[in-house]
UniProtKB/TrEMBL annotation:
Identification of the protein by name: Dehydrogenase/reductase SDR family member 7B
Domain Ketoreductase: 53-238
Xref: PROSITE patterns: ADH_SHORT (PS00061), PROKAR_LIPOPROTEIN (PS51257)
Organism of origin: Microcebus murinus
UniProt KW keywords: Membrane, NAD, NADP, Oxidoreductase, Transmembrane, Transmembrane helix
Length: 325
């Protein structure tokens, strides 16, 4: 009787014989070589695309925007850093220009200060942005604000504020910069959305709604801009360890001021910024940067909506109970 171990060994020997005695080995090596070559070409194209590109980043004073500024700067991009806090933008510019951790030629960034809640300021800011380097290659709509609250307690003003910052502001800035991109038949618009732009979580209504609207608008834009060769990338991260929950507004418009456990345990903004750089460099259309569970939840929402809704209702019950206890 042949033992199980020797049967396994025999199988291994036969498999190895098959691989080495036929064309399988050269074929495997050839595939690996082609794969490596494609990756290398992609990498070279990405580097060339980002080097000297004029990149506008909103919300550059903090979190993901700040880290994006660092990675795009190191890639050789010509930056226009935007935010509400001029001093913080200047401080970041100093930090970037005194760092020496890059081999490519770098460029001193410009800063433009404006509030996305102010439509008039956005039009003026767009003109100022265009004056910096004469055009814009890549617009990264990153700035955003989060929200925590129950729908029934939340004033309509709070819903509007979140929509102004996360949706109408980026839409207005994009519309103000698009004519120049269309004239050049060149440009790339990036929207930093969220997993909550694909699924809605209880007690985040205004935020999830603003990010769903963002996803919808920029998906339409992608289709409409194809004729001008303008790229559109929507990026949907899961939790990132930034000040987003601290800066979130509550049902009455006051600052939430709490570092949520989910946010604290989120991905590092440095890692997410590198993912953003790669997604933009590869001109990806729609990217989810999340762990397995949130990614699965997105599919569950489409494939088994009933189950998804039950899970969200149970989450709402639990959160309400925790708040009342
Ligand atoms: N952190 C997460 O877990 C997470 C997950 C998914 C998606 N995101 C998205 O990632 C993006 C960046 O957020 P973050 O996590 O880096 O949060 P953050 O640290 O709070 O940074 C938010 C940035 O947006 C700017 N901003 C807020 N309101 C603005 C306004 N009215 N006008 C102009 N700028 C404004 C802030 O500028 P000031 O310094 O002036 O306040 C700040 O630079 C947001 O779109 C957010 O929705 C975050």
């Amino acid at each position: 009787m042949v033992s199980q171990a020797s049967r396994k060994n025999l199988l291994k020997v036969r498999v190895m014989d098959f691989i080495t005695s036929t064309a399988v080995l050269p074929l495997l090596l050839g595939c690996l070589g082609i794969f490596g070559l494609v990756q290398l070409l992609q990498w070279i194209r990405m580097k060339a695309y980002l080097r000297k590109a004029v990149v506008v980043i909103t919300g550059a004073t903090s979190g993901l925007g700040k880290e994006c500024a660092k990675v795009f700067y190191a890639a050789g991009a010509k930056l226009v850093l935007c935010g509400r806090n001029g001093e913080a933008l200047e401080e970041l510019t100093r930090e970037l220009t005194t760092s020496s951790a890059t081999k490519v030629q770098t460029h001193k960034p410009y800063t433009v200060t404006f509030d996305l809640e102010d439509p008039g300021a956005i039009v003026a800011a767009a003109a100022e942005i265009l004056q910096c380097f004469g055009h814009v290659d890549i617009l990264v709509n990153n700035a955003g604000i989060s929200y925590r609250g129950a729908i029934m307690d939340t004033t309509l003003d709070v819903d509007k504020r979140v929509m102004e910052t996360n949706y109408f502001g980026p839409v207005a800035l994009t519309k103000a910069l698009l004519p120049s991109m269309i004239r050049r038949r060149q440009g790339h618009v990036v929207a930093v959305s969220s997993v909550q732009g694909k699924i809605s979580v209880p007690f985040r209504s205004a935020y999830a709604a603003s990010k769903h609207a963002t996803q919808a608008f920029f998906d339409c834009l992608r289709a409409e801009m194809e004729q001008y060769e303008i790229e559109v990338t929507v990026i949907s991260p899961g939790y990132i360890h930034t000040n987003l929950s601290l800066n979130a507004i509550t049902a009455d418009g006051s600052r939430y001021g709490v570092m949520d456990k989910t946010t604290a345990q989120g991905r590092s903004p440095v890692e997410v910024a590198q993912n953003v750089l790669a997604a933009v460099g590869k001109k990806k259309k729609d990217v989810i940067l999340a762990d397995l569970l949130p990614s699965l939840a997105i599919y569950l929402r489409t494939l088994a909506p009933g189950l998804f809704f039950s899970l969200m209702a149970s989450r709402a019950r639990k959160e309400r109970k925790a708040k009342n206890s």
